[in-house]
Amino acid sequence: MAPFPLPLLLLALAGAPATAVQPGAEAGLAPVEALLAAALPQEGGGVLRVAQPGQVLFERAYGGYRLDDAIPLASGTQLLSTVVLLSLVDAHQLDLDAKVASVLTTWPKDKAAITLRMLLAHTAGLPPSVPCLDDRDSTLEACIQQIAETPLRKDPGTAVIYGATGFQVAGRMAEVVSGKSWGDLFRQRLTQPLGLRVTGFGRTANPRIAGGAQSSADEYGAVLDLILQGGTRQGVRLLSAATVDAMFQDQSGGAPLVHSPYALLPGREASRPGLGVWLVRTDGQGRGLEAVCQGAFGFTAWMDRERNLSGVLLVRGDLKRMVPLEQQLRAWFRQAVPKVDR
User: Fold this and answer.
1) Would you identify the CATH topology of the domain 70-336?
2) N or C: less crowded end of the chain, CB within 10 Å?
3) pTM for this one?
4) Domain residue ranges in the chain
């Protein structure tokens, strides 16, 4: 499939009819349309948004979806929560290498070696899940107590065990150092600065930090724009460029993948955890060239740093069925869009 000039990719922005495609673009985009038409009906439809900062290249809704629909993100939430947590790192209220016990004074001795970095990279040795994660009537503080009392699966730093418990602990650390609830932090450090209206966790004192948010394709895309622009969007800086770079570094310390849904998906066997994302292509030195953040319902976001390109595939279906589609989409845009100078 030969690349074609970038202007031919351009579609009208949200709300414009499908006929508002740039002249000649229909033929170039036919493979993308064919992929989506074949895969999305069994999921009830969906939305695909592909963009470079300041320029939407492709944005279409299919089936019963609208461009501004918000759906549950499941683990796609992790990227959003990581931005909030890392903003506190940049503000010197948290430290990636600080021990959890330096913030949570009741944290047990058997877990004393765990750091914030380990929590976000899934290397803390904690079990993937505990019952309180789904208890919206509880509090984040109470849930952390349950996690603290649960035995470790592995010694901290020795294994990648993908799950939600680490992010829950990190969220509570953020509450303690800031003196604010997670909901307030999320609004003040992410949604309000970026003008996001439908992105959030809803009303609960025990939000699922790694999997409880909802968002729309355009609002999630705004966060991807922020990251691709080194932590700044439309004059608003939420993260430092160095912190953004850390998100795209292999944070596993070489620890083996002991439990990860990515190891069960074709093409994901070599994926490594960054911060809030999984690195699917690297430069050979642990620096991510392309990263994804996905959820159990099939939601997939990706960032291609070589092309300054982001994509959001917003569906509510099944992740395993979506993996072949998103891999083909990423490969197609990787071929169609030229690399940019960084």
Assistant:
1) Beta-lactamase (3.40.710)
2) C
3) 0.92
4) 70-336
